[in-house]
Amino acid sequence: MLPAFTPNRGITSHPRQAIRCPNCGSPAERYYLLESQLTRTQCPTCDYLMVTCSRTGNVVEAYSPGLYGYPH
Ligand SMILES: [Zn+2]
Q1: What is the dihedral of CA 68, 40, 36, 6, to 10 degrees?
Q2: 2, 6, 10, 27 from 56: Cα distances, Å
Q3: CA of 34 to the centre of ligand 1 (A)
Q4: Residues in contact with 30: Cβ distance below 8 Å, sequence separation at least 6, in sequence order
């Protein structure tokens, strides 16, 4: 009997949540890095990146390509 779901015990074990990118609105993903208490939001479409501390809510790292490459 094959298991329907085999959890990975490695780096891919972080809980994931499908969200909308706040930068471009495309489907993006939010990862919960439990051991470091960080929440990482990333968008593969526009390279948006946001890392916040889930304990304090502080922004640890943020990268929004729209702020830099916005057409004038
Ligand atoms: Zn995006």
Answers
A1: -150
A2: 42, 33, 26, 26
A3: 24
A4: 16, 17, 18, 19, 39, 40, 41
Q: What is the pLDDT of residues 31-63, one digit of tens each?
A: 999 889 999 999 999 999 999 998 999 999 999
* Beta carbons within 10 angstroms of residue 52's beta carbon: 18
- C-alpha dist (Å) from residue 71 to 12, 31, 65: 36, 30, 11
CA of 29 to the centre of ligand 1 (A): 10
d(CA 39, CA 5): 25
